[in-house]
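Page 37, continued from 36.
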């Protein structure tokens, strides 16, 4: 099957690109001809076509800079439409609905009328979602309605819909998407690329004492999540003054001065160093605040923690913690600083519990959330979408006289 995947992130720049790329790689391994279009990291005028893991990656030019280089450029949108003219597809999978994704997706279906359209929904950005959590007043006020429009206006165009959470499924249905056409497709674990590593060896490579208690966080922090994390850290260091919180990546929020001595911010690191830092941590902490954005999203960094076989402490906000609790693969607690601090200390002080959590984490990664398992589900969605499209395009039978 000829499959087109459309994404609004920088190629290999994180975000939903990781989801689209993982899906494309697995589909290609099963014999499908997969093309993924994403934004070029630097180019402003030309396309770049390369091949990775069996799929064709098309990097599109984009005139925007910084955070605007995320699917909003009219030039990028038009160039994608022009590139797609003359290509034929059996299935089009649009990852979210920003202009550089949904408008080329609709154009591609017009160029290939037989192609089925699947639309993925992986984040609640507009209407009080992530844009409110991560943006300033000006962006929220001016850009929020635009984000909401593109997020909602095209959902009923899909033959099938994939969503990353129950909250987004319910929102899609509220927008008029038939419930029977919506499938929850969580983010998967890459159990081949990410494997458990020896913590002692990782600490030796990083120059960290074997006895230092380390709690880890990877990636960006929303403001409310960050506030909860700082409160937890304040409680932890009262009891464990030797503890350090390792921030890996760019948190995008300032570290309060009163907790600064207990925070080690390592910034962006290479993939081998990222694996070492995660392996070196005793506990990976995920402080999802009780917000609309957190209930709707799937914190994919936790997938990597599971694949790495790490002990996880997480708040009971959204679908992912429920799955982890069901399989006893994490300590799940209310989004309160006292509960999170107590749970983290318990895991730090109980090696047997930590070992059990590590074993269960890897089991869930391999048996429940491995990408090959999820692609089995996605292929059923694709088959249903193609059948639906064919029914809509089938010529009407002439009436009997």
């Amino acid at each position: 099957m000829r499959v087109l995947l459309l994404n609004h992130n920088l190629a290999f720049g994180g975000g939903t690109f990781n989801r689209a790329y993982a899906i494309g790689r697995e589909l290609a391994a099963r014999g499908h001809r997969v093309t993924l279009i994403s934004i070029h990291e630097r180019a402003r005028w030309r396309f770049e076509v390369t091949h990775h893991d069996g799929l064709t990656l098309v990097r599109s030019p984009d005139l925007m800079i910084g955070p605007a280089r995320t699917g909003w450029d009219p030039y990028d949108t038009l160039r994608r439409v022009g590139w797609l003219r003359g290509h034929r597809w059996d299935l089009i999978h649009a990852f979210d609905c920003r202009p550089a994704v949904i408008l080329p997706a609709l154009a591609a279906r017009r160029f290939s009328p037989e192609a089925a359209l699947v639309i993925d929904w992986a984040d609640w950005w507009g209407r009080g979602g992530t844009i409110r959590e991560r943006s300033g007043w000006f962006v929220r006020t001016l850009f929020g309605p635009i984000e909401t429009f593109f997020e909602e206006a095209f959902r009923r165009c899909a033959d099938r819909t994939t969503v990353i959470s129950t909250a987004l499924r319910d929102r899609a249905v509220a927008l008029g998407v038939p419930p029977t056409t919506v499938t929850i497709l969580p983010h998967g674990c890459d159990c081949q690329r990410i494997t458990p590593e020896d913590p002692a060896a990782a600490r030796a490579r990083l120059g960290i004492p074997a006895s230092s208690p380390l709690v880890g966080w990877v990636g960006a922090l929303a403001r409310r999540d960050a506030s909860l994390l700082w409160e937890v850290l304040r409680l932890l260091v009262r009891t464990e003054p030797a503890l350090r919180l390792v921030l890996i990546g760019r948190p995008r929020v300032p570290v309060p001065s009163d907790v600064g001595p207990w925070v080690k911010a390592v910034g962006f690191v290479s993939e081998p160093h990222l694996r070492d830092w995660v392996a070196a941590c005793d506990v990976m902490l995920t402080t999802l605040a009780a917000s609309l954005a957190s209930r709707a999203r799937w914190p994919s960094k936790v997938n990597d923690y599971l694949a790495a076989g790490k002990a996880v402490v997480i708040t009971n906000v959204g679908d992912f913690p429920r799955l982890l609790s069901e399989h006893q693969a994490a300590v799940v607690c209310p989004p309160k600083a006292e509960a999170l601090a107590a749970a983290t200390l318990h895991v730090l002080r109980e090696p047997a519990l930590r070992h059990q959590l590590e074993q269960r984490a890897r089991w869930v990664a391999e048996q429940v959330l491995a990408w090959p398992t999820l692609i089995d589900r996605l292929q059923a969605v694709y088959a249903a979408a193609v059948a639906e499209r064919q029914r809509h395009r089938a010529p009407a039978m002439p009436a009997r006289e």
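The CA atoms of residues 150 and 330 lie 36 Å apart. Flag for discussion at group meeting. The chain has a mean pLDDT of 92.
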